[in-house]
Design goal:
The protein is of the alpha/beta class and 240 residues long. The chain has eight helices and ten strands. α2 crosses α3 and α3 crosses α4. It is globular and about 50 Å long. Bound molecules: adenosine-5'-diphosphate. The site of adenosine-5'-diphosphate has 10 residues, from α1. This is Spermidine/putrescine import ATP-binding protein PotA. GO terms for molecular function: ABC-type putrescine transporter activity; ATP binding; ATP hydrolysis activity. Part of the ABC transporter complex PotABCD involved in spermidine/putrescine import. Responsible for energy coupling to the transport system. It catalyses: ATP + H2O + polyamine-[polyamine-binding protein]Side 1 = ADP + phosphate + polyamineSide 2 + [polyamine-binding protein]Side 1.
Amino acid sequence: MTDPFIRLDRVSKAFGGVTVVDDLDLTIGRGEFVSLLGPSGSGKTTILMMLAGFESPTAGTVSLDGARIDRLPPHRRNMGVVFQSYALFPHRTVAENVAFPLRMRGMARPEVAGRVARALDMVQLGAFADRKPAQLSGGQQQRVALARALVFEPAVVLMDEPLGALDKQLREQMQLDIRDIHRRLGLTIVFVTHDQGEALTMSDRVAVFNKGRIEQIATPREIYDHPRTRFVAEFLGETN
Ligand code: ADP
């Protein structure tokens, strides 16, 4: 890992007295691709929500590039978010869909146009700006959703099971596309998935979650060759 860029220090989160993230330490380097892998309910999405600013930790601190961010609202955190349900506006063009978050913040039209063009170039959809979502393939629609997350030119992109709804072939194509975008743009990506194969093929490091704690965090190779706990070994051995 390079210098710590994202840092969670002793972070806990409880909902109604039930602890779902338990005294967790996690550091992620600048430009790293880290997957949060684990069964449903293990706390992965809650971590992402605390990074994005949609949830606050019950205890502990979250920092980005050396500065505390856990009290900042989502739009001050320099992070883009992509969810599984990435609904695009069907009656708006690709460019209008990507412009939407900028327009919401009241950004002036010339600046919006420049940023939208750059974001569409990042996902190689520059030629599709004037199309409607229905005129695109599933993978292209997914890339529009990614462009919408990139339009603020964030340092970090948070992805929550972004490929969960796709069929196998498209899923594999998007895995390659996301890796390619990660490399080309030097983004830091935190990627939530319950799919072992996906985490192991895409990531620089994988954090394996169990009940709000990290059982092991290591490179895919290390995790695959040397699972540190029985839980990790058994979880990796399961097939989806
Ligand atoms: P994962 O992403 O690993 O599936 P989550 O972080 O979504 O896990 O959820 C962890 C636990 O926290 C689950 O038991 C879930 O029901 C609970 N939880 C998540 N968000 C809330 C919430 N807003 N209110 C109450 N419980 C929640």
